[in-house]
Amino acid sequence: MTNKAAMSTAQAPLYGTKWSLKKIHDESGSKDISTKAFIKFDSEKKSAGGNGSCNSFGSSTTVDGEKMTIQNIFSTKMYCEAVQETENDFLKQLGKVTRYEIADSTLKLFGGEVLLLEFAAVTEME
Description:
Layout: E1 19-26, E2 29-32, E3 38-42, E4 47-51, E5 56-64, E6 67-75, H1 84-94, E7 99-103, E8 106-111, E9 114-121
Antiparallel strand pairs: 1-2, 1-3, 1-9, 3-4, 4-5, 5-6, 7-8, 8-9
């Protein structure tokens, strides 16, 4: 049996990893994201925060096994025309999250069985 932690494709941990937003899924389909949007989870503070593409945001987060809720989302209020729609969609979808899955360096957030958001773990060199 192989030690998963020793494998080069070891699963990135939920906490302490900077997760870069790669896709937003909604009723109209999926959109590839190339902004600086990201999220980071903090187990001690039971919170999550990051950047929506323009503004910093934060939230309270509850994680129980694979179940997750992201509530009380707040953000700074600058308007950035080029990325505002992406940020609005990102924060809207965060509020719908009920569970998560991590496979290797990919984090997927779901609302029930519906995929909402996809992230990639950021290595320290990026």
